[in-house]
Design a protein that fits this description.
With about 80 residues, the protein is α+β, with helices and mostly antiparallel strands. The chain has a domain at about 5-65. Helices cover about 50% and strands about 20% of the residues. Strands 1-2 form a two-stranded antiparallel ribbon. Strand 1 (about 5-10) and strand 2 form a beta hairpin. The radius of gyration is 18 Å and the shape is globular.
Length: about 80
């Protein structure tokens, strides 16, 4: 699957900046921001505020990966009860 890097301008904390991400990550960010009822700029601002180190593009990629990995983990199954006993 080829996903070329796309550079977009976004406002973070009142400052316009450019972020380069693969289209798949932009799509993931759009989905997350819609689910959380926030703008893309608000979500990127939150990621920027909470990042420990590294550049913003890397922080966004790690955030999107973590978000979808967490959602992909099946919830623990409840033990099935034997109703015939």
């Amino acid at each position: 699957m080829k996903s070329p890097v796309v550079k977009r301008s976004i406002v973070v904390a009142g400052h316009k900046t450019s972020v380069s991400l693969e289209e798949a990550f932009w799509n993931g960010m759009k989905e997350i921001s819609n689910l959380r009822d926030m703008t893309l700029s608000e979500l990127v601002g939150e990621i920027d505020t909470n990042r420990q180190q590294g550049n913003l593009s890397s922080a966004i990629r790690l955030f999107v990966l973590d978000y979808f990995r967490t959602r992909a983990v099946p919830q623990q199954r409840m033990p099935e009860h034997n109703l015939s006993a």
